[in-house]
TrEMBL record:
Residues 96-299 form the ABC transmembrane type-1 domain. InterPro entries: BPD_transp_1_N, MetI-like, MetI-like_sf. It comes from Leucobacter luti. Its main location: membrane. It is found in: Cell membrane. The chain crosses the membrane at residues 12-29, 102-123, 132-157, 177-195, 234-260, 280-303. Belongs to the binding-protein-dependent transport system permease family. Keywords: Cell membrane, Membrane, Transmembrane, Transmembrane helix, Transport. It holds the Pfam family BPD_transp_1. This is Peptide/nickel transport system permease protein.
Length: 317
């Protein structure tokens, strides 16, 4: 319990610091928000400018503006969009499900194929299969996600016509899953090398441990050794890396959603930056930070349960 309290307290402090940096970055961005709010240069009268500054608290010091924004965030009020003139919370609520669905689908693909390829490479270490998996996943990871997305669209959507070019689909769960397949593959493929390589390396280290040698000496079959003695003891680093990659995928949706025309948080961020919609930019960046922190913190708290050896280390600190 003390470890959980320390983690949550650290998460809260990090969130406060991150939120201030996000707000200050928007404050220091080039251009005056009043210009975008008023729009028509003919309306740029001193009275109008003063009215807009007072309405959006732009006439107050930075810390006062931050406190007003942060106190609103705590109640679910992220301000009003400069472009859409709607509450940012409503805009985010309409976009978040698409992004979470995409990340969840990609996370499933990443976990299954990333760990699977890593296990095969470890079992077939120092063979042609091992070299092929390592080189193939490394090559895939070196391709930028937007380039890979365009290539997948050109091949599977335009040439073969197996998948739709863009959009989320208007049907039920199956139709949504069908439309998200190529975007999810794009997200997952670029991260396969990290997970598969960590899985491979961690398992190879376990293969040389004493308990594995003892299991072999008893005549236990190799598949049971891999399952019960190698993979089970390698779960800690593997799960940690999978969690870190999944948490970072939310930021990766920026390029993928733009390529595939998905109305998610990532494409919303790109649109908000291009139109200087500062309240939306702040909300999206804060959402990404919170999502990353929640995923990594939850995994850190669950690891001692999944691996009892870690709980002993945590208790000793």
């Amino acid at each position: 319990m003390p470890h959980a309290i320390r983690k949550l307290a650290g998460m809260l402090v990090t969130l406060v610091i991150a939120s201030f940096i996000i707000f200050a970055a928007m404050y220091a961005a080039p251009g005056d928000p009043v210009t975008f709010l008023i729009g028509n240069p003919e309306n740029m009268t001193p009275e109008r400018i003063a009215s807009v500054r007072a309405q959006y608290h732009l006439d107050q010091p930075l810390l006062a503006q931050y406190w007003h924004w942060a106190s609103g965030v705590l109640t679910g009020n992220f301000g009003e969009s400069f472009k859409y003139h709607q509450p940012v919370a409503d805009i985010m609520a309409a976009r978040v499900p698409t992004t979470l669905s995409l990340v969840a689908y990609a996370a499933l693909l990443l976990t299954v194929f990333g760990i699977g390829l890593g296990v095969v490479a470890a079992v077939r270490r120092r063979t042609a299969v091992d070299s092929l998996i390592v080189s193939g996943t490394t090559l895939a990871a070196s391709i930028p996600s937007f380039v890979l997305g365009i290539a997948l669209v050109a091949l599977f959507s335009v040439q073969l016509r197996w998948f739709p070019v863009a959009g989320i689909g208007g049907g039920g769960f199956g139709d949504r899953l069908f439309h998200l397949t190529l975007p999810a593959l794009t997200l997952a493929i670029t991260a396969l090398a990290i997970v598969s390589r960590v899985t491979r390396q961690t398992m190879i280290e376990q293969f040389t441990s004493e308990h594995v040698e003892a299991a072999r000496a008893t005549g236990l079959r190799e598949r049971f050794i891999v399952r019960d003695h190698v993979l089970r003891n390698a779960w800690g680093p593997i799960i940690t890396m999978v969690a870190l990659v999944i948490a970072s995928m939310i930021a990766g949706t920026v390029a993928v959603e733009t390529v595939f025309g998905l109305s998610g948080v990532g494409s919303l961020l790109v649109d908000a930056i291009n139109t200087h919609d500062f309240p939306v930019v702040q909300a999206v960046l804060l959402f990404m930070v919170v999502a990353y922190m929640v995923v990594t913190t939850v995994v850190d708290l669950l690891l001692p349960i999944l691996d009892p050896r870690i709980s002993g280390k945590v208790a000793a600190r």
